[in-house]
């Protein structure tokens, strides 16, 4: 049986899949990687990468790197590629530290296996932050062994040797030997301990800090790249599912006679779901049509007649919800952060500015809708899926099938966009359940309608900020009221308040020097599957805070950049813990002592962006510049957006400037591309997208009603200025998004005099 | 079910399918040509773009029965060795992020350059507006089209560091 998965092209699937593909052993890794005997395999033990954060500490000996006797270097990419470039970014760190010839590097995608590879949940802008050091150590360990082997052969001191371009070199004698020729000798040596390794100095890097094209570039532009939707084994059938329109609803009855009459339809199978809360690893209720091809399955799905018990969320109305939340936050809520006494600041204020900020539900709308293929044979299950989280998918499939996780293998394809959606395994579980029930290899295909209706939506939000300015023209008080259904509600119905983690995405880590701060939250019961979308709560929280700060600047008679620099105050590291009611600022799961909130790094990006964008220059009528700055996922970003608004309220964005400090820059081209794309993603949020819900069901069906920006309305030039930084590297997938929307809204004000309090922007009502 | 004889990338393919089956699913599910992608099913996103007699069409919304004797070109047949000027320009500017929409983008751009070998920036924007990219590669797409058309680097600014 041929498997046309991108990373397993060379394997023939055997009758008993488990016998060949499942053993999590080094031998199997070699097979899967297509590597023949005679290679040097380096098992690198990692030390804790982060013992306080995500589960990375228990890294057993891992296999990331193989050097073949023919000189080919095989590097395992264990994080999912959804467009950030990580399938290139982590391997190039290994290659650079090793001194490899990049043209001889082959990248092999890892299946989901935490014990083997460490954390693979590609989420939270974590990959480079978490794996920069382990990848360097993996490369350095191989370099150490190859040098030892060559030095012994040449009878010279190891510290006189170096590696470059796939060879060990001895400059003094002019000797050099290709890696491949050293494999036999090096593999007889002991793997060095971490303390024996000498990592390269930044000046020695040839790839880190430079541009490297993505590994899959040619396959992508020739249509050969394989995504989840492309996964195929012999005899694959396609399932399309009619899901219950309301979260928590169940099947009452269904009639499949018309569906089964459609040529090509094979089976109709109900899926029991509809839990409330829904969780992320269980499917929604639905009726699946399995057919010979996608078209027959779609037609079969459309012909199904299903009567639903719509359940407890059938009266949910998102417009009404937003109105109710806006009313609720006028009153006092649960205090989450407190500094000084805001009520005193307010009573003594010379000026009080108060506004409510509203933002809608959003959908991820990856252009590749969710899709997964599952094959069950001999009590084992093998999956191919566009998943951000193959380990989570493996566990979820194992649970759904009542199977040991060791019997489940999850192969990761390329992802046609992720943005947080594809970290949830619900669609993969559907494929596994249907494969089991039908006895067929089944690829579940979601349609665009499924995707928009049944996403794990970014939730709507209502916020109110009260800012007070005293007689000395200082910002004396800041009171921020926040309401939205928590992501936690998806897992636990008792969760009705934002978590510390959600508030720590830009709200409770309000860094400005204001003597009186109070942050309050409110109960909000969820009626949806609430998930996380690229930068998560930073989106609404940065929108409200950074547009209010623009008003504060105006009220103080200062420009927005000067206001931000003034409010950040002296250079220092901020810890928020003592003012937080629950005592601890999550800091993106990192120790605040190791990754502090540093005001000088923020000031540096602000000053840089102001300089690059020509902040303060006079703009023609109808045009304006807007500024915002925001730290998220430990990366510091300042943004200036230029807009032009014509007499028909048509908004164009001629220029965007970003200045960023993400620590040591790894692949500068992909850093720029993430910011270019982040600006576009955020333009959709600011100007276009909204999911609305009536009677518990999403009203938008496709891209005609759920709009994302198209080329003519996208920002024309996006300038990305990367600060030369020696700080520890941090992620860039999500940080471009939060400051863009408020910077754009502030620019709209500069151009038109209209303030934006509700997303998406509607200048006819603003 | 009906039998059709369709011309794809210079070869004739005989298929026996439902007459309302969109060309997209004939390509992907029946013929195993998976470079053409599914995104919306109603000609809203352009991921499924192929050529019918050198004109860009959304294959998700064209039934196989409407193809007739027309010549279909897909990404697999755009160039022999993956070296169409647009494919080269796409690589030069490292356009793709996730890559999923890019085959549709390239096919749409190829049809544009066939009818207008030197499009202006505005003409590019108008011609490409039916192709969505959620990752936000629009500026590099525009740049690659200008490069393939023999233009200079005027759009994408590679900022200093």
Are there runs of chain A of 5+ residues with pLDDT below 50, and where?
1-40, 42-62
Q: What are the low-pLDDT stretches of chain B, counting only 5+ consecutive residues below 50?
A: 157-161
Mean pLDDT of chain B: 94
Could you state the CATH homologous superfamily of the largest domain in chain A?
Aldehyde oxidase/xanthine dehydrogenase, molybdopterin binding domain
Assign a percent range to the helix content of chain B: 25-40%
Broad shape of chain A: globular
First-to-last CA distance of chain A? 60 Å
N- to C-terminal separation of chain B?
Answer: 60 Å
Structural class of chain A: alpha+beta
Shape of chain B: globular
Return Rg of chain B in Å: 16 Å
Question: Beta-strand level of the residues of chain B, as a percent range?
Answer: 15-25%
* Domain module count of chain A: 3
Oligomer status = heterodimer
What portion of residues of chain A belong to β-strands?
Answer: 15-25%
CATH architecture of the largest domain in chain B: Roll
Can you tell me about this structure?
The complex is a heterodimer of chains A (about 775) and B (about 160). Chain A has about 775 residues and is α+β, with helices and mostly antiparallel strands. Chain A folds into 3 domains: about 190 residues, Aldehyde Oxidoreductase, domain 4, CATH 3.30.365; about 160 residues, Aldehyde oxidase/xanthine dehydrogenase, molybdopterin binding domain (Aldehyde Oxidoreductase, domain 4); about 350 residues, Aldehyde Oxidoreductase, domain 4. Chain A has 20 helices and 29 strands. In chain A, the strands form 8 sheets. In chain A, strands 10-11-8-18-15-16-17 form a 7-stranded mixed beta sheet. The N terminus of chain A is likely disordered. Chain B has a 5-stranded mixed beta sheet with strand order 2-1-5-3-4, with helices on both faces. In chain B, helix 2 packs across helix 5. Helices cover about 30% and strands about 15% of the residues of chain B. By secondary structure, chain B is an alpha+beta fold. The longest helix of chain B is centred in the last third of the chain and has 14 residues. Chain B folds into 2 domains: about 80 residues, Beta-grasp domain (Ubiquitin-like (UB roll)); about 60 residues, Orthogonal Bundle (DNA polymerase, domain 1), CATH 1.10.150.120. Chains A and B meet through helix 7, helix 9, helix 19 and strand 29 of A and helix 1, helix 2, helix 3, helix 4 and helix 5 of B.
